[in-house]
């Protein structure tokens, strides 16, 4: 939060500086009231199998190998 600590308090948008800086490559940053969280862009999946993660928890977004999805590559 930002403000003067007494009469004015407003949520700080941590995502404003950019998803790559906050969450890492191939991510989207989602601001929430008092916090924020990260998700992976389409075509990428989180390394810990969680759909939502927070920065610095060791999660990164990795490229999805579409050919591992049954039937997608013409097996």
TrEMBL record:
Residues 11-50 form the EGF-like domain. SUPFAM superfamilies: EGF/Laminin (SSF57196). GO terms for biological process: epithelial cell differentiation. Keywords: Disulfide bond, EGF-like domain, Repeat, Signal. Transmembrane segments: none annotated. The keyword Repeat applies. InterPro entries: EGF (IPR000742), EGF-like_Ca-bd_dom (IPR001881), EGF-type_Asp/Asn_hydroxyl_site (IPR000152), EGF_Ca-bd_CS (IPR018097), NOTCH1_EGF-like (IPR049883), R-tyr_protein_phosphatases (IPR051622). The keyword Disulfide bond applies. GO terms for molecular function: calcium ion binding. This is Sushi domain containing 1. It comes from Nothobranchius kuhntae.
